[in-house]
C-alpha cells in the first residue's frame, strides 16, 4: 500500500517524551486537522484550548477518567443541539462551575469560619441548573 498525505499519524509518530511531558504542538495540530476532516467538521469550529482546559479540570477536579467522558458529553450535547463554538463555550462554563462546586461544596468561609453559602451555580445564561435528585447515585 502506497503512503499518502492523508494517512493518520500512528502512536509511532508521536515524539518521545516523559509521561505528562510536553508534546510537539504541531503533531496535535495535524491530528486535530485530520480528525476534523475525517468527521467532516470545519477545523475552525474546534476550540482545542477549551477542550483541553475542560479535560484538565475534569481530571483534576473529579477523576482522571472523567476527562474524556466530560469532553465527549460536551461534544454530544453541542452536536445534538446543533450548536457551535459559542454554545460549547457556554456549556463548558456550566460544567466548569459544576466541577468547582464538587471541589468546594460549601463555598467560601467568612472571617468567623462560617459558610457564606455555596458557589453561585447560575449557568452562563443566568439560569439555575435543575435540582439534583440523584445525590449519591444515578437517577
UniProtKB/TrEMBL annotation:
Residues 24-100 form the DUF6457 domain. InterPro entries: DUF6457. Residues 111-128 have a biased composition (Basic and acidic residues). It holds the Pfam family DUF6457. Residues 1-25, 105-139 are annotated as: Disordered. This is DUF6457 domain-containing protein. It comes from Clavibacter michiganensis.
Amino acid at each position: 500500500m502506497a503512503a499518502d498525505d492523508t494517512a493518520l499519524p500512528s502512536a509511532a509518530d508521536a515524539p518521545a517524551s516523559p509521561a505528562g511531558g510536553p508534546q510537539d504542538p504541531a503533531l496535535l495540530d495535524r491530528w486535530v486537522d485530520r480528525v476534523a476532516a475525517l468527521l467532516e467538521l470545519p477545523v475552525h469550529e474546534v476550540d482545542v484550548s477549551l477542550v483541553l482546559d475542560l479535560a484538565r479540570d475534569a481530571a483534576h477536579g473529579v477523576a482522571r477518567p472523567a476527562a474524556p467522558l466530560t469532553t465527549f458529553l460536551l461534544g454530544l450535547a453541542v452536536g445534538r443541539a446543533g450548536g457551535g463554538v459559542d454554545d460549547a463555550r457556554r456549556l463548558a462554563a456550566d460544567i466548569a462551575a459544576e466541577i468547582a462546586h464538587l471541589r468546594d461544596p460549601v463555598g467560601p468561609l467568612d472571617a468567623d469560619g462560617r459558610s457564606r453559602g455555596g458557589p453561585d451555580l447560575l449557568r452562563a445564561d443566568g439560569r439555575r441548573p435543575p435540582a439534583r435528585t440523584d445525590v449519591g447515585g444515578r437517577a
